Amino acid sequence: MHGILLLAAAVLGDGYTGIWYFNQPSNDAYVYKYSGGFATYPQQQSPIAIYVPTQRKTFFCYGGTVEGKQELLHMVSYFDHKTGMVPRPTVLMNKKTEDAHDNPVMSIDAAGHIWIFSNAHGTGRPAYIHRSRNPYDIRDFELVETTNFSYGHPWYHPGKGFLFLHTIYENKGRSLYFNTSPDGHTWTKPQLMAHAELGHYQITAHQGDRTATAFNLHPEPVGLNARTNLYYMETADMGKTWKAADGTPLPIPVRDAGHPALVHDYKREGLLVYLKEVAFDRDGRPVILYLTSKGYNSGPSSDPHIWHTARWDGRQWIIRDFTRSDHNYDFGALWIESDGAWRIIAPTEPGPQPYTTGGDMVMWSSKDQGASWKKIRRLTASKEFNHTYARKPVNAHPDFYAFWADGDTKKPSVSHLYFTNKEGTGVWRLPAKMTSDFAKPEPIALPR
């Protein structure tokens, strides 16, 4: 099985430790293009956490490891909202790599079976699909399929099955595909959704019958380090047809940079585009969160790193600045509440390692659809490590609202995992070492 260890019986971890990862040494003061505690990386794949009201649990998966090693373990666990405790996490598999691009994503079907999609970074390693044998049970999984995909987005539609958006690496870059399955066992042949120039990265969202994708462009001849442009399209019929935000049918596959899915032409402005989050507002209209900069490398030469929101108002895309930070891979998540309030949690404070990935987490709020923003509170004040990749659970419960990791951005380190509540009045660290089957997360002092 290509050196991959598949675990037939449940193996329990002795605590919560995230994978540390780096990409592209830069041979300067910032050491890498990006790096750090990447248990919840990357943004190009989702979801990694789902709250289930009937169980009063938030189920989640992440890229873990054994302390002292850099070997990617696919971990599955949950937070029990009744008890405020977490169990020892299940080690689903050892991916036999240190590459956090292989991190897992999850879905939960109508019967409560937990599905884990184990990504592969390119075609050099296989990808896997596992299913829990019993509903809402993290202890016993069966291998459903060995295949290949990268950056997976498995969205389950009750009564219809899975719509799986993903990436396949091909000769000329990264191609966006989708396929469907009524039961997770039988899948249609992947259908090409987009491949213009050298390909794309995408982020996705799901609401009711609708699944949305926002993607950028990897232009020729440079490719991903020149990523630019912003595109959007959605489907309400499991990929049979795709439409723009205004409902106009769109042809697929996307084959050129000027395709009508284009939201904004940043290539013409000489700006790079780093995707963060796409969500639907209370009127069902899409909002895209992303960042632009002048270069791919770490450091002030790529300034300014400007966060933006693009909101479809029913007639046009309204693009507004949100704030600034100091790195392209400062990832933040966007929540849009039922009362219309927008909320972002992102490492917009530099943290102890400026101009490297992440920083200190900050909660922001907007009451006017992104026209103005208020800093609600700073959630972390680390003296050593940067915090990275705050992710949003599906159906996020107020007590487990965002989930992230920390780590040294300049050299390998231990990485811990954290979560916060909706109001940002508490931050908790998941236990790195457990001496019993269940433990309460440790409260972390909030900055004054």
Spatial order of strands in the largest sheet: 1-8-6-5-4
Please summarize the sheet with the most strands.
5 strands, antiparallel
By CATH, the superfamily comes out as YVTN repeat-like/Quinoprotein amine dehydrogenase
Based on Cα principal axes, name the global outline: globular
Would you write up a description of this structure?
The structure is a single chain. With 448 residues, this protein is mainly beta. The protein has a single domain (5-444), classed as YVTN repeat-like/Quinoprotein amine dehydrogenase (Methylamine Dehydrogenase, Chain H). Helix content is 0%, strand content 47%. The chain is built from no helices and 36 strands. It has strands at 5-12, 20-25, 32-37, 49-52, 57-64, 73-80, 86-87, 90-94, 104-108, 114-118, 127-132, 141-147, 150-157, 161-170, 173-181, 191-194, 202-207, 210-217, 228-235, 242-243, 249-250, 262-264, 272-280, 286-293, 305-312, 317-325, 333-336, 342-349, 360-366, 374-378, 386-391, 402-407, 417-420, 427-429, 438-439, 442-444. Strands 1-8-6-5-4 form a five-stranded antiparallel sheet, with no helix packed on it. Strand 25 and strand 26 (317-325) form a beta hairpin. The N and C termini lie far apart (51 Å). Mean pLDDT is 96; it is low at 1-8.
